[in-house]
Amino acid sequence: HLGFKGQGAKAGSPRAPASFPVMPPRKSAYRQIQGVKYDRDLIEMAEGFAKDGQISDAEAKKLWDSALDGPGVTPTERRTLEYIMKAHKITDKAAGYLKGQLATLDGKDKAESAEAGAKDEEMKDAPADEKPKAEEGDEVKEEKEAADSKAKEEEEDGFQAEEDQRKAKEEEPKRVEEEDSASDSRPKIAASKVQLDLAQATPNLMAAAEGKLLMTLCDGGLQYMLAGVRTSVGVKSGRYMFEARIFETLHPMETNLPRGTRTPGPRHLVRLGFSTVKSSALLDDGADSVYFDNEGNFVHQKKRVRVARRFSKDEVVAVLLNLDAGKPNANTVSLFCDGRRVCEPQPLPESLVGQVLVPSISFKNVTLQVNFGPTPKVPLPFKCRMIQDAAAADLEVLDTPGPASKDGRYEVLFPVGLPDNGLYDWLDQFLEENPKYTELSDRKILDWCRQSQLFRQQGFYKRSSNDKPGMGFGIPALDDLTVQRTISSIAPALKRNLVVMEMKANLVPSERKALVDCFPRNEFKRVAVVAMGEPPASYKKKVQELALADKKRKVEQEKHKKAEELMRHKAQRDRQPKSSWRRGQDEEAKEKADGDDEDGEQDAEMKEGEEAAAPEEEKAVELTEEEKAMWHRKLETPDLAAPALAKAFANFALPEQAEGFDEIRYVWGNADKCGSQLKDWILEQKKTQRVEDLEPSSWFTEKYSAWQAAVQEWKKRQTDSKDGSRRSRQDTPKKSDGAKDDDEKDGEGAEKDEKEGDKAEDKEAGKSMEIDEDDIDVFALEDVNDIGNGKPVYANFAYEDWTLLSLRYELHLLMHAFKHDLDDPDRPTFTESHLAYYFNKYYKKSFSVKFFGMDTFEELAALIKENVAINEKQMVEALLPVDEPLDKFLRLTEEHRRERQRCIDAGDETARLKFSKAAPPPRPPSGGKDHRDSDRGKGSRGPMQRSRPGYGAPPPPAYGGGSRSSRRCSSRSPPPRGGYGEKGSQKRPYAPPPPGYGGQSKQARYGSGPPRGGSGYGGGPPPSSGGSYGGRSYHR
């Protein structure tokens, strides 16, 4: 670009080429349906008309007028009209009209063809001198075509003029405005009664200038929310209007939006319409409202039809409701801009005909000027009365909420109830019976966002809990709960009765008091409403109705799902070919026969499925006796999320007057029954809920450190005991015959010394053979470190024994630490399902019975039955006292090892423990020179030795250990001659290898071994060459 080689000019540089606007792709004038070309405009018009049902005769005339908008009806337009009559529902009158017009068009085409043929015949029969010359043929032809085209255009213009006149006459009753309002001698409604119902408006709406200016808050996330308000009267008959004007448009700032976040639109929105008496203040897509928006759409439910042009700032917009029975345009709604009609009268939906309709206004990021009368700002082409000028008999004055308290203060209610015990059902019934209260809660804010047409990725019915459903809009101001904080700050300024629905906060005294203090006592009567105990019969009846409706809905969903699955299988079967062309004729015939059989079987199965489904459709859905006996229905969404419930339930308490309440109402049971129910509920929750905020105390840390030090000392003594016996055997010099010396005395002396040494060895060996280790009572030993021959009682411990030893004490300490740290007499222990959670909480490592080769914790508890047990309530219990000596666990482990070994010797292979063990870490790469030679024989441990297991040392296992089959690989047998198998190495006596990976560390691993030869969980010294288990050798 512009002389730059290989690179384009940077954006914004002086040499950057000018950017040209990118034109959007042109929309094709045709639409292809099944390979046939049709006129797009006609198709879209017909689809819009068909949404309401059948295409009427008036709409058929509009289709024909659209086809005549050009030089004439083209073949494509003709084909499109014929397609519309076949593909869409159309009334008989409308179809007859289109067929008549097409027939008239065919007659004209035939007449023109006959006239052209007659002229050709005349030219043939004419004398030769009257015929045009050959050289003049082209000019004559052009003149003829021009004359024919001109005649056709004149004829079409005349036909179009006639059609326009006919259409104007047919639509004259609609085009001509209604008659002027007749004089009415009936009493008029008082102007003071026609006002905005601010007590039921959305919290972000503000009124000024005596209710003539409507503004909205545009900060703290409220710029995304609609503001809505209704009048205090509803129209039940007559023809009346109200006006609105966009006074200003607001442009709130949107900061901290993540990249790629879709900003909700439109930014400026106005909705003007009518709603029923029991509808909300917002005009939404519900069935109880109808409205026009500033985009020119007429909306009812989810049907949105473009009927008018847009209206914008400074235009006076009038909405007219005509309920005059027997008059033109009865039961319609019309829109006017600056006194001119901008759309045809739109008929009211059938569901709204005959109901009292309340003028309603919803808007966002604009300031509106509203006018309800008595005189309009801009008169209409005909005289029409406004709402404030209406006859009192044509309007119904609604019940405008006022202060609920007799002393003139507004009430603020704080509902208190147990989670999943019907509090939200009670609140819904209360608000239905008392619409003068406004609920403040997260679930209402979520519904508010839905009515404001905000996009939520997971939909509006998927919620984490009823108390805190979660936002999830991808907009920071909404997701970080800024809207909730903004509403909480402006709620005390709202002059209305409120219900603060906070499930958890209303149950926790400290949080409840903070909420109460937000509302001043001189303006609000602060009332706690407790809904506990047995509910009344009216509540139970309503709950059963809701439960039955939920059950029917689920049955319908399941039935619809099965029908869709059946149709999908049928369509898939129909699409499958019965044979393949690549195979021979014989295979095709065979496959065809098999396919027919399969099709027959599938048809039979499908028929059976349909027959089986038929009785289910006829069967009435009813509640079971158990469901009828329930006080509360189970909602799909819990009232409180599990983590929030686990952290807070122990602090739940009933409200008290000292917290600042003016009144405490018990709507179901009295105070004593509610207190008893709450206490029982908390005790039940303590058995099933985890303690999320529990942390290990210093008492636990001290106890566990002492245990780790003791285990390290025991493993070191075991290693020293085995290494000492090996060294004594290796360091004993061999007896040689000796060279014959000339001095016989010296020879005799040497022989005498040798015999005395042999006698001393035999005497020492005989002494050691006198002690049978298996016959020693481990519980009677005074010192576990010496059984009488210098060996410790745990000398024969293998990996599995150290693992069980650590497990015994750690479960013992965990149970007592839980009781000590929680210090709750109502919860001395926990359930077996929470064991892994608390084990990880205290020891910072995972726990799984699968590591021990078990399927259930009951099996593992049977292995260490002297330490822990599970009672009938599935609670884990410690069987030994907290101050039990540490060597007691060592003695229990040795006793269990001996019993297990006796079973194995008797042929019971099921007694073998099958613990898993992690694979050893990979060997670090050596850089050139082999580090094994350089580190051998040194007293210190080099970095290479710390990063890899020592020779013959077992690998560091994960929690639960490894397999016993790896012990042969970890035996400390002397290396072969030549030193670790390397050629040319120095010959020397075997020395113990350096300590293994996972020996001493700042943080001891589960069952870590002594400094020399230690390992991970339960890693003890490996057996001697040939392998042994429990002290008994086994050789191949």
What features would you highlight for this structure?
disordered N terminus, elongated, 1036 residues, single chain, 12% strand, alpha+beta, six-stranded antiparallel β-sheet, nine-stranded mixed β-sheet
What's the pLDDT, averaged over the residues? 76
Strand content: 5-15%
| End-to-end gap | 84 Å
Shape: elongated
How many whole angstroms does the radius of gyration measure?
47 Å
Instruction: Please tally the helical runs, counting DSSP H or I stretches of 4 or more residues.
Output: 24
| Largest sheet features | 9 strands, mixed
Unreliable residue runs: 1-22, 128-136, 167-175, 579-583, 610-617, 735-745, 763-769, 927-1036
Helix content: 25-40%
Would you tell me the structural class of the helices and strands? alpha+beta
> How many β-strand runs?
28
Written account of the structure:
- Helix content is 37%, strand content 12%.
- It has 1036 residues and is α+β, with helices and mostly antiparallel strands.
- The strands form seven sheets. Strands 3, 4, 7, 12, 13, 14, 15, 17 and 18 form a nine-stranded mixed β-sheet that branches. Strands 5-16-8-9-10-11 form a six-stranded antiparallel β-sheet, with no helix packed on it.
- Helix 1 (40-50) packs antiparallel against helix 2 (57-67), helix 12 packs antiparallel against helix 13 (585-618) and helix 19 (799-822) packs antiparallel against helix 22 (886-905).
- The longest helix is centred in the middle third of the chain and has 39 residues, at 537-575.
- Residues 1-22, 128-136, 167-175, 579-583, 610-617, 735-745, 763-769 and 927-1036 have low confidence and may be disordered.
